[in-house]
Amino acid sequence: METTQQEINAIIRNLKALNSQIAKTIKSDLKGPADFLASAIKGRTPVGARVHKRYKSGKSMLFKRMPKGSGVVVATYRPGNLRKSIKTLTKLRRVKYAQIVGANTGSGANDGYYLHFSNNDVKMSNGKVRPGKRFVESAILAAGPAAQRAVVQILQNKLLNANRAGQMSDSSAWASGYR
Fold this sequence. Notes:
This protein has a two-stranded antiparallel ribbon. It has helices at residues 2-15, 20-24, 26-29, 31-44, 81-85, 115-119, 135-164, 171-174; strands at 52-56, 72-77, 86-89, 100-103, 122-123, 129-130. 45% of the residues lie in helices and 13% in strands. By secondary structure, the chain is an alpha+beta fold. The chain has one domain.
């Protein structure tokens, strides 16, 4: 897995030699492997048995938690909501040459803000630790290598096509072994 990540990093360094028009399409080209990884995570996401609600409530005078069920219901989470919220997050503008897979968080119908509570260990208020299910890591271990190979193949083809079209601005980038 390490060599594949090194290959991806080397190809991305070479992509910086491309003109801006080709570089703009890279993010959309990587959506396929990202969707594959998202579907693998969805397949391993646990589904609850009952409806959960999130409340907006004020604090009491002594800064203690309010009793369960008091306050205004802000959101209702039905079984399978977390599974529906996992997707390729396409509206992240700060990511230029990547696709991010995760839970959609926000005010939408499928708010999966609690993904890290389900996946990771959680220390509860009574001091006990609830163990996490670690389903994201198991899905990445299972589907990650195939997604990485697909990314390498897509990016190598993009470099090959750019070299054939004469759009590489630096010939040394092509000499790094991607033919």
